[in-house]
Amino acid sequence: MKYSSKTRPSVEFKGFETPALRAVLREASASTLKETLERMCLQQPDFFGWQPVVIDLTRLGDDSENLDWPAILNAFRSAQLHPVAVCGAPESFRENADALCLGLADLPDPAPYLSRTPGDAPAPQSAETSASASSSPASRPPAPPPEQSLKPAQPPELPLLDAMIIDRPIRSGQQIYARDRDLIVMAVVSPGAEVIADGNVHVYGSLAGRAIAGARGRRDARIFTLDLRAEIVAVAGLYKTFEEGVPENLRGKPVQIALGAENADALEIRPI
């Protein structure tokens, strides 16, 4: 439908996706939350710079029904964070969400991004191997219908896009987001700057700002840098802050950062 200058609407709504921080609450205490956020912002008051944040209640269990929401929201806003939604909330929270002007978000689904190894699927057997495994016809599994596929289910293929390459320094206050691709920075990421990618983040200079890989839930994403001096690093929504600076054994070193191989609730920082 075409609009004339007189009938064209004053606003149009279009889809728009931008990464948001995901704050996983581990305690129901608003005062403890506020103290933690204040420590993060002590050295740099504009640490978060009014980024949108989704509050994740999945770790609280039944305690999520007894939260002091005005105090919780005040704690985030006092740290220059903008709460926009809640995920992992019980159904009874819906009325509270409306009253608090918060959206209800779905938990990120890591399934499309889980890597599959050869050991995940049973090894295919030849006809001879199958026959020798059981000499009794009664013990053999029934043959599948002709139209049934014997191939194990595979995760959906993700679109492969060329990496975004930035060959200039990322200054304080700037944000670079590589959607559906890797991000490669050939220069310095300054304190107060932020680099984000749905895939991997590579920084071939000093990483002194914030780096977020797997921004939309990709759990096999990683961060690579030749000089770690970061303020915040995150992979698939799991954050690690360096409130007192990067530890001496890692500061200025080339490292890779990924979800833990044994503990998926922790980030591992390993030398390259």
Which tags fit this structure?
272 residues, alpha/beta, 6-stranded mixed sheet, 15 strands, 13% helix
Q: What's the topology here?
A:
Layout: E1 21-24, H1 30-41, E2 51-56, H2 69-78, E3 81-87, H3 94-100, E4 103-105, H4 127-133, E5 164-166, E6 175-178, E7 183-185, E8 194-197, E9 201-207, E10 210-213, E11 223-228, E12 232-235, E13 238-241, E14 255-259, E15 267-271
Parallel strand pairs: 1-2, 2-3, 3-4, 5-7, 6-8, 7-9, 8-10, 9-11, 10-12
Antiparallel strand pairs: 11-14, 12-13, 14-15
Helix pairs in contact: 1-2
Characterize the structure shown:
A six-stranded mixed sheet has the order 5-7-9-11-14-15, with no helix packed on it. A five-stranded mixed sheet has the order 6-8-10-12-13, with no helix packed on it. By secondary structure, it is of the alpha/beta class. α1 (30-41) packs parallel to α2. β3 (81-87), α3 (94-100) and β4 (103-105) form a beta-alpha-beta unit. The protein is built from four helices and 15 strands. It has helices spanning 30-41, 69-78, 94-100, 127-133, and strands at 21-24, 51-56, 81-87, 103-105, 164-166, 175-178, 183-185, 194-197, 201-207, 210-213, 223-228, 232-235, 238-241, 255-259, 267-271.
